[in-house]
Specification:
The chain is 52% helix and 5% strand. It has 208 residues and is mostly helical. Strands 1-2-3 form a 3-stranded antiparallel sheet, with helices on one face. α2 (43-51) crosses α3.
Amino acid sequence: MSQDKYTVNGANIDWNCAGKFNFTAGYNPTKAESAIANYASFLAPVILYFVMWNKLDWSILQFAVASFLALDMVGGVLTNSLGSMKRFLHTNQTLELNWLGKLVGSKFLFPAVHFQIFVVPLCFDVTWGYAFFWYGFMMASIVFIHMLPQYIHRPVALLFVMLSIMLSQVAFVGPAGLEWLASLYMIKLVLSHGVREEPYRPAINETK
């Protein structure tokens, strides 16, 4: 049985990174994974607009920035959690990558360049402390997690995510319409990108 491709308890796992790296879906994505990575996030700004944004007195710039942030955060959570992306993020293979692939695959540099949170005080009525706190909390969480044994990465990451959900209601609260942003920021980078998960594959008789 190959160390890179095997079945455990009926679950097919494939660590082999073959073919060309895909920025939104990693390596060897199924059709379902590609659809989730490339299209599902576009639902977020549409839903948010009809549920809450249409009630807010925002400028066109603010709508554009909020839509970008929704696409980026929701898309990042989904993309980084795909088996096809986990296959790449946590592979032991030596891969030929361009600068973008190397950036995405870096467990510290990739989250470190996520300065999108600093766009919020630039365009909305919130203090700079909001951006500095959540950026610092995100980076500290990632550093702390990678100091721990791997088998507790997931529960500790979830602990930080839960703390972010609770804290975002009482301290360093986001502007109206973006209250969810800090928590998704944490989920995207600390949980989805930072935690190793097995890259599952569909069974042979399942639709790909």
